[in-house]
From TrEMBL:
Protein's recorded name: DYW domain-containing protein
Spans through the membrane: none
InterPro entries linked: DYW_dom, E_motif, PPR_At4g14850-like_plant, PPR_rpt, TPR-like_helical_dom_sf
Gene Ontology BP terms: RNA modification
Keyword Repeat on entry: yes
Residue ranges that the Swiss-Prot or TrEMBL entry lists as coiled coil: none
Length: 539
DNA sequence: ATAGGGTTAG
């Protein structure tokens, strides 16, 4: 920076200041390189009498790079007002600014200008458009830009994958990745693979994820922290704790995110104590925990039943680290209290919450009431949930189970009749299974695959075998407001069974089959996913 | 004359 000032001064003395080429380069160095900063660039910019397109582009780029998107857009306006015509270099930075601020409408109108000025066939402009629409959640226009492109680069594919990942459209991410490989137009790039790895994580595509890992190891000399962390997360969430832990231990540059992934991973797998140990290791390293890390540690306490430790950490979170607890933190700690049957403490805490308690909070208490067979709490919470207008069939299952356990048959029956009166149904589930690195999905009663008859026949065979082993179908947890026979049918061709039968048909003996089951609006945000993993085999 | 787009958890 000092050197830059010197050069600036020298240029002034030598009269080079009239040489706009020199000044432009000075400006670019200030704005973009690591040696300068935007304050100084603005100073230089203000000394230029008649800034041209290049100077404006440089300034817009610099602001975008600094995430100062407002200033970037202000300069773009100023540029137009002063009659400077933007070029194909201008727009990628302008769209980055729109994306950063989530200004879809503005982005769209600038897109219109781009078409008018004739820059809409520039590869870089198009890529930044895909990204802008994607960040704004407008997947339709992202795809439209993609479809209209004559030539594509790795960044094009990468932006499209990221756009779908942003909306939790993991299935589509893998489809796009498949298309890209078919085109054969790709090389070793970490960036696109990060999006794909993330899709593998969410879909439970362990084999595909593992082969991507192998590909990266063969083609790159080393992985960066981002890719490494997403691989660890992938292994853990796909059930392979050992591989995740192995990668983590060998990592050279662990950051907060790596610790965060590993801590919540350990918690998820029921290793609560190990998660807490890792948390203190992280603190020893001088890494400050954030709200997500705390969520991981609290859930570790929850899984390990460490009520005291959980409450202590909750205090620490608020007072030592000055973190404002979110509703998820409360949900976690309430679940912890509920499991420990500390219902008085739980209700006290709810009173003190800084936001109105949501359905999830009450639901965790209802579940605890069921576990401890506490009718008083169950009744109270059930009433509140109904007042909130819960339309979650699972709540009613829990309520009727609680009543049934307490042998209050009339109450149990009345809850069940409420379900039919309200026309509630259990959310449709979706099962995913990976066969030979390809994902397949099934819904209940699915007949969309060409070999569905074979699959159904397989299920009948499985049933014979199960019957032989003495298995009887349990319909008690099914809350469809349909008769027993229909319930049996639904269970019989449940999506998980279909996925399992399908995989059994296509894999050799002793193959491990993993089935991922999601409930809810599965094309929406990932937060709505509920993953239940099953492993079958190798036995 | 000078230059550019895509990146991880909850």
């Amino acid at each position: 920076m000092e050197d830059l000032k010197q050069i600036h001064g020298q240029m002034y003395k030598l009269g080079l200041y009239c040489d706009s080429f020199c000044v432009s380069n000075l400006l670019a160095t200030c704005a973009i390189s690591n040696w300068g900063n935007m304050d100084y660039a603005s100073l230089v910019f203000s000394q230029i009498d008649d800034p041209g397109t290049f100077e404006f582009n440089t300034m817009i780029r610099g602001h975008s790079k600094d995430s100062d998107f407002e200033s970037a857009l202000k300069l773009y306006d100023e540029m137009l007002e002063r009659g400077n015509s933007p070029d194909n270099f201008t727009y990628p930075f302008v769209f980055k600014a729109c994306a950063g601020l989530g200004l879809m409408k503005l982005g769209r109108s600038i897109h219109g200008q781009v078409c008018k000025f004739g820059f809409s066939d520039d590869l870089f402009v198009q890529n930044s458009l895909i990204n802008m629409y994607g960040k704004c959640g407008n997947i339709v226009d992202s795809c439209a830009v993609f479809k209209g492109m004559e030539q594509k680069s790795v960044a094009t594919w990468s932006a499209l994958v990221a756009a779908h990942a942003n909306l939790g459209m993991w299935w589509e991410c893998l489809e796009i990745f498949g298309d890209m490989m078919e085109m054969g137009s790709w090389r070793a790039e970490e960036s696109i693979l990060v999006g794909v790895i993330s899709a593998c994580t969410h879909l439970g595509a362990l084999d595909l994820g593992t082969s991507i890992h192998g590909y990266l190891m063969r083609n790159l000399s080393g992985l960066n922290v981002v890719v490494e962390t997403s691989l660890i997360d992938m292994y853990i969430k796909c059930g392979s704790m050992q591989k995740g832990l192995g990668l983590f231990d060998k990592m050279k540059a662990k950051n907060r995110l790596s610790y965060s992934v590993m801590i919540s991973g350990l918690a998820m797998h029921g290793h609560g104590h190990e998660a807490l140990l890792l948390f203190s290791e992280m603190l020893d390293q001088g890494i400050e925990p954030d709200d997500v890390v705390y969520l991981g540690v609290l859930s570790a306490c929850r899984h390990a039943g460490l009520a005291e430790e959980g409450l202590e950490l909750f205090e620490k979170l608020r007072h030592e680290n000055k973190i404002q607890p979110t509703v998820q933190h409360y949900g976690c700690i309430l679940d912890l209290l509920g499991r420990a049957a500390m219902f008085d403490e739980a209700f006290d805490l709810i009173e003190k919450m800084s936001m109105p308690p949501n359905e999830v909070v009450w639901r965790s208490l209802l579940s605890a009431a069921r576990i401890h067979c506490n009718l008083e709490v169950g009744d109270k919470v059930a009433k509140i949930l109904m007042q909130l207008g819960s339309d979650n069939a699972g709540d009613y299952v829990m309520m009727s189970n609680l009543y049934a356990r307490a042998q209050k048959w009339t109450d149990a029956a009345s809850v069940r009749s409420m379900v039919s009166n309200r026309g509630l149904d259990q959310a449709a589930g979706l099962s995913l299974v990976e066969v030979k690195r390809k994902m397949y999905r099934f819904v209940s009663q699915d007949r969309s695959r060409s070999n569905w008859e074979e699959i159904y026949e397989m299920i009948r065979q499985m049933e014979w075998q199960l019957k032989f082993e003495g298995y009887v179908a349990d319909t008690s947890e099914v809350l469809h407001n349909v008769d027993e026979e229909e319930k049996k049918q639904r269970l019989r061709y449940h999506s998980q069974k279909l996925a399992l039968a399908f995989a059994l048909l296509l894999t050799p003996e002793h193959t491990t089959i993993r089935i991922d089951y999601c409930i809810g609006p599965w094309s929406a945000k990932a937060a709505n996913f509920q993953h239940l993993q099953y492993e079958v085999g190798p036995e």
